[in-house]
Amino acid sequence: MNGSDSTTTSSLLHKAAQISFTPDGNLYCEGAWTLQHLVDLERQIASLPKTFAGPVRCDAGAVDAMDTGGAWLLQRTLNHYEREGARITLDGLSADFATLMQTVARSWSRTEQLQPAQPCGWMERLGRFAWSYVAHARKALAFVGETTVAFGSLLTHANRIRWRVLLYNLQVDGLNAMPIIGLLSFLMGIVIAYQGSEQLKTFGANIFIVDLVGISLLREIAPLLTAILVAGRSGSAYTAQIGTMKVTEELDALRSLGISPMSLLVLPRALALVIALPLLTVFADAVGVFGGMLIALSQLGVTFTEFLNRFEYAIVLRHYVIGIVKTPFFASIIALVGCYQGFQVFGGVDSVGRHTTISVVQAIFLVIVTDAFFSILFSWWEI
Amino acid sequence: MSSTLQPSEPRYPMIEVSHIHTRFGAAVVHDDISLTVNKDEVFAIAGGNGSGKSVLMREMILLQQPSAGAIQIFGQDIRAMDDDAVAALRRRCGVLFQHGALFSSLTVTENVAVPLREHTSLSAKLIEELALLKIAGTGFPMASVNKYPNELSGGMRRRAALARAMALDPELLFLDEPTSGLDPISAAGFDELTQQLREWFRLTIVIITHDLDSLWRIADRVAVLGNGKVLGIGSMSELSNSTDPLIHEYFYGPRGRAAREQAWSRK
Prior knowledge:
Chain A is of the alpha/beta class and 383 residues long. Chain A has helices at 7-13, 38-47, 68-83, 95-111, 122-156, 163-174, 178-203, 209-247, 250-256, 261-300, 304-314, 317-344, 350-380; strands at 18-21, 27-33, 54-66, 86-91. Residues 1-12 of chain A have low confidence and may be disordered. Chain B is of the alpha/beta class and 267 residues long. In chain B, a hairpin with a 2-residue loop joins strand 9 (221-226) and strand 10. In chain B, helix 7 (212-218) runs parallel beside helix 10.
């Protein structure tokens, strides 16, 4: 083919590929045995008789184009008939195409050393599945232990704290999260107050909107909402950052330079979250309650002064404290899961994405489980 | 400009690059580059780091636009192509990227099957057979066909990527530094494979390399880029007699001399 013809003209130059039996019982091939005609050829071959015996001539003189796909299809067909007991002589194929068929046959002989993988039974799969969870749990536990030990040694050697990294993470994961957390918490306050006001109005118990908004936000909603947002925002980032560093061997580089990834990457992040999450929760409390106040005013006619007076009287300090006490635990979970999943990244970049997803899902799951656990604990203690 | 090799037999140009200029902001990468790649030849683009070799290849495979100038592939001007023509052109070109660029979430067989699956509607069985054939043809160890790219060595990855580039039986094959990072034995093996594939499938190959051994061994013609220009085009023996100081440095530096002597002793 010369440089001036395009694909369309070159495909017009050749006849469509065909394979068929002539009336005298010989095989006849013609046309372009190339990739674009293979679908058609495959169909034609499927409709040929499956077996026949005796010597057969395969006339391939009219084949005027062939690529590896076509060569393989012809080779495969001939192989099939030969296995069925036919003796086939290939005739008239041009020297170039004959060489191509030899090349293909030689390549194919290499694939025959391939052993088909044994499909494993459901028992084996179940076993492997269960075992992978046990192995993961052990690794995760080891990581928690390692971090705790490193954290402990940090407490006795305060000069080892990497302040710059810590402050940077405080800014990125704390300060920069304020707008989105404020907005969502404000909206949650509005939603709760709005839903409550419909019910309270019917009883004329307008002022109890304060109890509803105050207790639910301070005790549950604000801590949980903040933790979930931070898990999605910072936990995922931790996994992606550490995971990418693992893929590009930066973690190994750190180790070889005598810098422990634990002290540079994990501890400052964990510490930053443990500091930032309670502060963010306080912020979310305030903004959420303000949202509730606006709805109380507009829907129930409860003025800001009335609201705040009732708030002081009705919302006992413990609700606020209980909400805040939970947050360092949430923060530890998010940071540890995020970093742990980052270290679990293995191999290629697609692993980073997979582990980031796992990290967010696991962190949110564990945060909610922990919250439920706290609820049970507090109800035992009757607070 | 340069001493272009006069073809002894009629040759068809596969790629014609004429007066290419490429600028990234203030940085000039190509300053009036012209060259022609003929059918059935192995055309190498050599030059130091940052001489714009890879950018030139990216422009040839339509991944990047030159700032000025024209590129013709198979006689068609790539600027005048519509989407269908570009798609058709891409099916006729195979590209081996420098680090293989295998899809990391797919096994080797699946990687090679991607172009077949995308561009044909063949049965799954035939696609798998064709993929295995291509893999076998590159000398990839068949025991590893179900492994993922990150489980492979650099040489294996390169061969798997070559199998993917060959999946649609391209007429034109682009190799971006195929032997970089390979040990001498693997690199020599890869050169041999390139030769073999070229004979088997009548390929036209554009190869970017600074591996002087590869240049001597497989390149029919070499274009040396430098300072944004083509410093010289010709066979290796022609270029090694060039008076251009940069080319001279390239071929008569300590490593160049060794490769040259080795090439002569082979002949």
